[in-house]
Amino acid sequence: MTRPSLRRGPAAVPPSATTTRPEPELAAKTGLLANLGEDTEFPSTDGGQIAYEVTGLTAAAEQVVAARPELVWDLVADVTRVGGWSPECIRVAWLGEPGRPQPGARFTGHNRFPDGFEYEVTCVVTEADRPRAFAWVVLDDSGDPARPSSSWRYRIDPLPGGGSRVRQRFTHGPGASYLRAAAAKAPDRAAEIIAARWDGLRANMSATLRAMKAAAESSHGTGAGPG
């Protein structure tokens, strides 16, 4: 797949990341940055934007699952199960009440990269429309859900015969992030860093969906599962 081009401008200092910033070498090695569409271009400094501006960049993955949408939704909305599916997010826990998937509910995600680097983020549920969609945002240091570090969304569409098509989508920004910080530290390598995250994120999302699919189809086959 052809990688997006990067039009560079003078470097500028981005907002702080949510925790200790990784060095660019760590970012590239661990896949810390996001998969871009083929036609994605980076804005130059025109209009006050910097060359490594990444707000709005997306990654997506999908799976067809032989299970009804209600069962699939109950699985993906149970965020505590993600640690058993994702290669990157190893642990998730609800924060306080209500401790269930509804708009405004908060949870923490603990991530680990292949070299052992770990960090934790706080997330807020923004959409919980059973059995169609489930979404959340990842907060940056500001804690403002309107300017998140990133946004995530599952869309679940019914298929003939009782199956489901599950689409997962990641959108970067507009808040502070590791991606922005790493690109700022090495503007001459920004395209390489972003492309590395693109590959890593897409691979992790696909692996997560495959594991969820196996769990859903196992529950479907045995007649188990909520809903």
Task: Summarize the structure in words.
The chain is 25% helix and 26% strand. By secondary structure, the protein is α+β, with helices and mostly antiparallel strands. Strands 1-7-6-5-4-3-2 form a seven-stranded antiparallel sheet, covered by helices on one side. Strand 4 (118-129) and strand 5 (133-138) form a beta hairpin. The longest helix is centred in the last third of the chain and has 33 residues, at 190-222. The chain is globular and about 50 Å long.
Summarize the structure.
Helix content is 25%, strand content 26%. The protein has helices at 24-30, 69-77, 178-185, 190-222; strands spanning 58-65, 89-95, 106-112, 118-129, 133-138, 150-159, 163-172.
Give the SSE map:
Layout: H1 24-30, E1 58-65, H2 69-77, E2 89-95, E3 106-112, E4 118-129, E5 133-138, E6 150-159, E7 163-172, H3 178-185, H4 190-222
Antiparallel strand pairs: 1-7, 2-3, 3-4, 4-5, 5-6, 6-7
Helix pairs in contact: 1-4, 2-4, 3-4
Helix content: 25-40%
Q: At the fourth CATH level, what is the homologous superfamily? A: START domain
Whole-number count of domains: 1
CATH domain class name = Alpha Beta
Q: How can the largest sheet be summarized?
A: 7 strands, antiparallel
**Widest sheet, order of strands:** 1-7-6-5-4-3-2
CATH-defined topology? Alpha-D-Glucose-1,6-Bisphosphate, Chain A, domain 4
Ranges where pLDDT stays below 50 over 5 or more residues in a row are 1-52
User: Shape, please?
Assistant: globular
Structural class per helix/strand content?
alpha+beta
**Cα-based radius of gyration, to the nearest Å:** 18 Å
Percentage of β-strand residues: 25-35%
> How many E-type strands?
7
Terminal CA distance: 40 Å
